Amino acid sequence: MVENRRKYIDIIADRLKELDREIGNLEKLADMAVDEVKAQYRQQIEDLFLKKAKVQGQVDKLQKASGNAWDDMKAGTELSWEVFQESLKRGKSKS
Q1: Position 6 pLDDT exceeds 60
Q2: What's the CA gap between 43 and 89, in Å, rounded?
Q3: Which phi and psi (to 5°) does residue 67 adopt?
């Protein structure tokens, strides 16, 4: 179980790194956009950072959880991850 937990946490950490790159790409687009669109990008980017922080917080808790608590927290982390990914997709679709 410890091995599965470590593997899962590593997968989430890799996902977060990839999404950092995606957010960076959105920031570049925002820098090139006209002023009225820039504000929209910046709001989306701020929202993504807040959601990313929530997922990161859940990963931190996962590392400390045990037994059934770990299973419950994993499910919550997956849900947060899905919300985060959907927000990222919406941000990318507006570019």
Answers
A1: yes
A2: 14
A3: 50, -130
